[in-house]
Every structure is written in structure tokens, then in C-alpha cells.
Design brief:
alpha/beta, Rossmann fold, 5 helices, 8-stranded mixed beta sheet, 8 strands, 23% strand
Length: 173
């Protein structure tokens, strides 16, 4: 079983979160590839059982390079080529009102449109309410990016990786 985490990271926060999600996935026996959105190729997604997207919040929406990557998947959408894979999302924003949940929902909508089975974050998991909401891990990093992900967020990322690994094995196993 294999998963890919495609992400955009300006200050290194999303990349740090991706590394923790990778850790959780690997603990579940899933082989993981990290790919920067600016370098990822849509066709590469065909090789994976799980697809996880990470983005900073940009004016209440998905970061530009991740959005461009998403737009490059339209040919796969036309063929329904990614259906029945497992998906997940994580984001960082300047503050809780920066549009983190809106960005998560936009990413969810994209992955659902591509036919993925989405994996949320359960309220009894470590980090819920402080480092994650029901959609997945979140990090409040300050308007200038100086705050960084909290320990609660990093714990939530590992736990989310484990949950994604569990889901990948259930759906794709």
C-alpha cells in the first residue's frame, strides 16, 4: 500500500506537518512519498492508494501552486481514474478565522470530485479541537508565519496519518 502527500509550503509549516503525517502512515505500514505541488505530476497519482493534500490558506482558499496541481488532474477526472482511493487534507493559516475550514472544504470537494473516499478526524483522537478539526489537522501559524505548528497540531498529524493508514488498508486492502 502506498500514499502520496502533495503539498505547498511557504514557511515550512505544511512541510513539517506532512512529515508528521508521513510518520503516522509509516507506523501503519504504508509507504509514503512526499511531493511538492510545484514538482508533482497528476499522472503520478495513479500509483497510489492514498492521496493527501496540504496547503497554506491564501485569502481563504487553496495556495496557488497546489491549486495549479489540482487543475492538472482534470484529465484523470474525465476518466474517473482515481476513484476508490483514500483522501485526506491538512492546512495552516494565519489565525483561526483565516479561512482554514473553507480551504479544507475546498480540498475535500476536489478529492470527492476525483472519486476519493475521504477520511476525517474523529473527536476522540489526540489533538482534536487544538490541532485538528473534524476535517483534519490545522495549524495557526500567525499572520507573518512565525508561530509554527503547535505540539497539539504535530500530534494530530501523526494520529491523522495513522487513521489514513487504517483507511487505506480497509478501502484498498
Amino acid at each position: 500500500m502506498k500514499a502520496i502527500i502533495v503539498y505547498m509550503s511557504e514557511y515550512g509549516h505544511i512541510e513539517q506537518m506532512a512529515g508528521k503525517i508521513l510518520q503516522g502512515l509509516e507506523e501503519e505500514g504504508i509507504a509514503v512519498t512526499l511531493a511538492k505541488a510545484s514538482e508533482a505530476k497528476a499522472e503520478d497519482l495513479l500509483e497510489y492508494d492514498g492521496i493527501i493534500l496540504g496547503s497554506p490558506v491564501r485569502m481563504g482558499s487553496i495556495g496557488d501552486r497546489l491549486k495549479s496541481f489540482i487543475e492538472s488532474t482534470s484529465g484523470l477526472w474525465m476518466k474517473a481514474a482515481l476513484q476508490n482511493r483514500v483522501g485526506g487534507v491538512f492546512v495552516s493559516g494565519g489565525n483561526p478565522n483565516s479561512g482554514m475550514e473553507m480551504t479544507q472544504m475546498a480540498l475535500y470537494g476536489t478529492l470527492l470530485e476525483l472519486g476519493l473516499v475521504m477520511t476525517g478526524f474523529v473527536n476522540d483522537m489526540p489533538g482534536y479541537g487544538k490541532g485538528a478539526n473534524q476535517w483534519g489537522p490545522i495549524a495557526k501559524v500567525g499572520l507573518d508565519g512565525t508561530e509554527g505548528p503547535t505540539d497539539d497540531t504535530l500530534t494530530a498529524c501523526v494520529e491523522y496519518g495513522k487513521r489514513l493508514g487504517w483507511a487505506i488498508k480497509k478501502v484498498r486492502g
